[in-house]
Amino acid sequence: MHDLTWDHVADWFAPDGSLLDAYVLDADETDWQRVIDLVQSQGWRFDYTVEGESLPLPQQVAEIFARRRSEATVTMQIWPAPNMLANTHFFSDDEVEFDFDRTELQGQHLLDVLCCFMRSLGRQLGKPLRLAPENSPQHPLIIYSLMDDQFIRTT
């Protein structure tokens, strides 16, 4: 059984040059620490970079935000599956955001991988997630409801 059926959401994933963003709103550094802990505990492949240079991932997220506050470009690329990349840039400690290239999210299998990734984050943080067009958290397409442990189409 699938969380979402590709046929019902395929239009939202049509490649148009823009990204899709997954958001956890009302976050804090503790939530970000849980994200780091989840990535490591799941064994997902990742690359942490500062100013484009790959570095070991700090164990404490406070160190990442200290670098970010010094105007450094900080990025973490996560591969929850070999052919799906989630990027985070640590833009803000009060909002967890991942971006996804629509061209990498085509078909039922990759939609299932995306749902699994979002569910893992939601459960780890104890918060809902919303998938929305790039830079539009106020217009979610899909919401992962932690309370119901399900995905809700909003349109």
Q: Please state the average pLDDT score.
A: 94
Spatial ordering of strands, largest sheet? 6-1-7-8-9
Annotation field: number of helices: 4
Helix percent reads 25-40%
Instruction: Tell me the span between the first and last alpha carbons.
Output: 22 Å
Sketch the major β-sheet.
5 strands, antiparallel
Task: Set down the secondary structure blueprint.
Layout: H1 6-9, E1 19-24, H2 29-42, E2 45-50, E3 53-55, H3 61-69, E4 74-81, E5 84-88, E6 96-101, H4 108-125, E7 129-133, E8 142-145, E9 150-153
Antiparallel strand pairs: 1-6, 1-7, 2-3, 2-4, 4-5, 7-8, 8-9
Quick tags:
155 residues; alpha+beta; five-stranded antiparallel sheet; four-stranded antiparallel sheet; 30% strand
How would you characterize the overall build of this protein?
The protein has 155 residues and is an alpha+beta fold. The model has no long low-confidence stretch (mean pLDDT 94). Helix content is 29%, strand content 30%. Helix 2 (29-42) packs across helix 4. The protein starts with 5 loop residues before the first helix and ends with a strand. The protein contains 4 helices and 9 strands. The chain is globular, with a radius of gyration of 15 Å.
